[in-house]
Amino acid sequence: MKKGQGLSITTIVVAAIALLVLVVLVAVFAGNATKVNTAVNSCASAGGVCLAPAEDGSAPDGHTRLFTAKCPETEPKEFCYAKLENAVFE
């Protein structure tokens, strides 16, 4: 084979290693992104507390529901609530 024709074995090996490194980096960052998303959406990070709703399904006294924050799966089902501290909301 003449020099300069086609791809050399060295080029193929370097490209394969670069692709492997890229796949590993994507896997690492995707895993960390999931952890960050879970932490950001947690009830505690939103300043709330996980509580079971009242028997009629309403929020416990003095609390309002935080719909975007998540609580762990429990039985009975708990939701994230924030305590209202301003008399305007009572």
- Major sheet strand order: 1-3-2
From the alpha carbons, calculate the radius of gyration and give it in angstroms: 26 Å
Average pLDDT level: 79
Order of helical and strand elements: HEEE
Number of domains: 1
Residue share in helix: 25-40%
Strand content: 5-15%
Number of helices: 1
Characterize the main sheet: 3 strands, antiparallel
Shape: rod-shaped
State the separation between the terminal residues, measured CA to CA. 86 Å
pLDDT < 50 stretches: none
Number of strands: 3
Structural class: alpha+beta
Describe this structure as you would to a colleague.
With 90 residues, the protein is α+β, with helices and mostly antiparallel strands. It has one domain (9-89). 36% of the residues lie in helices and 12% in strands. The chain contains one helix and three strands; from the N terminus they run H-E-E-E. A three-stranded antiparallel β-sheet has the order 1-3-2, with no helix packed on it. The chain is rod-shaped, with a radius of gyration of 26 Å. The relative contact order is 0.13.
